[in-house]
Amino acid sequence: MNFKPLLLMLGLACIPATLAAQKTYSLSSPDGNLRTTVTVGDEIRLRLDAGDTPLLAPSPVAMTLEGGEVLGQNARVVRTKKSSVDQTIASPLYKKNRVVERYNQLTLSFRGDFGLVVRLYDDGLAYRFTTDRKGTLRVEDECVAFTFPSDCRAVVPYVARGKEFDFESQFFNSFENTYTTAPITELNPGRLIFLPALVELDGGYKLVITEADLEGYPGLYLRGNGENARTARRLRPLPK
User: Tens of pLDDT along 216-232?
Assistant: First the structure.
């Protein structure tokens, strides 16, 4: 499974008719500056704020398994748990010999033996899906549409190879290109964006989207939708 930190050195979302059936869970960073809100209803949405400044508007997350089951669709919470970690990790091969790991964590367990783990650091947000199921799972698709409060400026690297809208041809690339700067609404929907990608937000915040802790899992690509302040995802499909 994969963690996707939103590093804080740093659309309009529809309000469903089933609002009354939704449940909301919140988590703050150790220093109290960041706050994430997880809304669970017909879908799972993540929101991120720094004080009174919205950084990430409610953004849907889900995962589709082989066979069509969607983790995160009409999910039902059966258990929640909050925890905290404050430790120092030795890192002899890094530029610093020790790294401080400090975060608060919210674990949501759902009916169907799967869960969502959300971590909030003083400078970032991370999430990942988990399961308690036996055996091997095959992931067909991962839904994450990062939705921003306004048409912010993005700094992104497009995949250089392949034809526009022919995403299969774009998957074969060297992850090398110069960065393009453009408003989110003007991102080219026909070209994949590889990570990391940066979004410059109001209030001087800069939000970086990236991945970590991948093993036996394809890398995630983003692309603009050409309509609003939202980026769509594109996961490299399973080989046939």
Answer: 777 789 988 876 666 65
